[in-house]
Write a sequence for this structure.
């Protein structure tokens, strides 16, 4: 009790602490929101909502603890509880369209535009990135989430379990299934790029 | 009697090459995510020195993780976002 009153801060102090501790997470948080919603405006709204919630509950946030995991958890819950219901279509990318594009002759046409070797290397890098993105976006949101949290953001299994409110065993099995699924999608691409099935 | 049963069970040929590979494949995600215990890590490393199949699946799984961590482009945060968050917070009591 006395600890709570001892922590009473002025609005200015609270705001300053809030900004210093939580705003550095903005970049990963926005990226996470974007990977969940697949829409920039929606990501924007979701991130703002997350920060406002975090502000309301900031008294319960223990200074020096994992701010990133805390914000990711709030964002994930907002996405599930409110956002997903609000938005008409949770997955706005029609994978078949993207797939159709990359499987067509356009892939060669595109890299053909880059005439210098440097540019060609760069465009191949871009193509890989784009293909990873569309394969990932085509996964169910639960699968997409664990891959982003683990492989892109480097959260531990324990942190992921807390963010997602699921046991570590479920984190592991979900991640495993998500990777198999991603592998399957990327294999199609690998074939179209002339790699054989065993390369990925 | 009980000890005899245990003995028989323990001597059963369950530790074949196949189950060892199965154990290693279950460790695969833990290993590439840095979540394996040092004991498991040691077991894993030792096994893939001799087993080409498991060595290759390890390579593939590392490659897959690398595709996401190394090639997935990060989206750029709109400049206005931080400002509008700060503005909203200042208005909140
Ligand atoms: Zn093996």
């Amino acid at each position: 009790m006395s600890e709570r009153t001892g922590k009473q801060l002025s609005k200015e102090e609270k705001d300053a602490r809030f900004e210093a501790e939580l705003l550095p997470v903005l970049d990963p948080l926005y990226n996470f929101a974007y990977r969940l919603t697949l829409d920039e405006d929606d990501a924007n709204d979701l991130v703002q909502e997350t920060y406002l919630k975090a502000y309301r509950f900031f008294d319960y946030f223990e200074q020096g603890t994992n701010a990133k995991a805390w914000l990711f958890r709030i964002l994930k819950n907002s996405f599930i509880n409110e956002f997903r219901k609000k938005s008409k279509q949770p997955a706005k990318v029609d994978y078949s369209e993207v797939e159709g594009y990359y499987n067509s002759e356009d892939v060669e046409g595109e890299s053909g535009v880059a005439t210098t070797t440097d540019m060609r290397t760069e465009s191949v890098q871009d193509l890989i990135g784009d293909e990873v993105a569309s394969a990932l976006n085509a996964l169910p949101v639960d699968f997409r989430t664990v891959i982003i949290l683990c492989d892109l953001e480097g959260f531990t299994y324990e942190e992921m379990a807390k963010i997602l409110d699921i046991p570590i065993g479920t984190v592991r099995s979900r991640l495993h299934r998500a990777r198999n699924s991603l592998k399957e999608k990327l294999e199609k691409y690998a074939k179209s790029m002339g790699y054989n099935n065993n390369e990925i | 009697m009980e000890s005899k049963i245990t003995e028989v069970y323990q001597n059963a040929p369950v530790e074949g090459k196949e189950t060892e590979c199965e154990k290693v494949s279950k460790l695969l995600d833990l290993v590439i995510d840095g979540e394996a215990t040092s004991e498991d890590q040691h077991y894993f490393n030792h096994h893939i020195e001799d087993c080409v199949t498991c060595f290759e699946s390890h390579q593939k799984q590392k490659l897959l993780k690398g595709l996401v961590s190394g090639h997935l482009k990060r989206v750029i945060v709109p400049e206005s976002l931080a400002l509008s968050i700060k503005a909203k917070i200042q208005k909140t009591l």
In short: Residues B 21, 24, 47, 51, 53-54 surround zinc ion (CB under 6 Å).
